[in-house]
């Protein structure tokens, strides 16, 4: 998901025609897409951290 948003933002910026007055729309779309990808990645990392804290260490399971 994250990589798709960043790739889409990159494609939008590459294909935007700077001579047209609508360049700001392409930049806005690229920024929103990139921010969405960053937000998703941060949420995913937080969820992974919480999940790993809840799991007991593997060596404790082997000793039981």
UniProtKB/TrEMBL annotation:
UniProt keyword terms in alphabetical order: Signal
InterPro entries: Perm1
Leader sequence segment: 1-18
Highest taxon listed in the record's lineage: Eukaryota
Keyword Signal: yes
Keyword Signal carried by entry: yes
A GO biological-process term: regulation of DNA-templated transcription
GO CC, alphabetical: cytoplasm; nucleus
Name of the protein in its database record: Uncharacterized protein
């Amino acid at each position: 998901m994250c990589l798709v948003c960043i790739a889409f933002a990159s494609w939008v910026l590459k294909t935007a025609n700077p001579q047209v007055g609508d360049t700001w729309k392409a930049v806005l779309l690229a920024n929103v897409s990139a921010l969405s990808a960053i937000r998703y990645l941060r949420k995913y990392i937080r969820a992974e951290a919480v999940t790993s804290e809840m799991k007991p260490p593997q060596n404790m399971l082997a000793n039981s």
